[in-house]
Amino acid sequence: IYDSLQAGSMIAALAPLIPVMYIDSAVDAVLKGMGQQVYSMNVNIIDALTSGILVVILVPKFGVGGYIFTIYFTETLNTVLSLARMIAITKPRLRLMGHIFGPILCITGATVSVHLLSTALSLQPTAIMLALQITLTALIYLGLLFITRCIGTDEYEMMRAIFGNRKTKTVTPLLSASTTRTTHS
Predict the structure, then answer these.
(1) Among 75, 101, 78, 63, which residue's Cα sits nearest to residue 17?
(2) Mean of the pLDDT values across residues 155-176?
(3) pTM of model > 0.85
């Protein structure tokens, strides 16, 4: 995309961190919605202090590699602390296979499949091919989630409500034709 080997290597180095950052952002929002703003602020202060200390120690010694390690470490620390707090408060009933390991295996299978297909077909890396690969990966991922039953009936019904057939409903008027409004003069 950027026609730069160096930019591509940096994107590749940081790309695995995107799901961690997404989870951190979502969990922070949930915690704030649950009245845990002070806890979130404390975690972010710990994150910033840890990041500053690691940058001062690691960057002079390891350069960009030290900075990338710092980003990985602090983002993971922030996510783990926030996620642990949310789990402690909500006490969810997690199915390890259905909620954690199954989706990880499904996305890994989808990603590897599309990569192998792209390699076998010797596809040229263009923006259009990248968009097609992302779309195909998402479709295979959803298919694998259904096949492995990681998506249950609740999730299926929710997706159907979001993406399903949207028929327009007739609106019932507040006042029927037989009801009249009288005014006193």
Answers:
(1) 75
(2) 64
(3) no
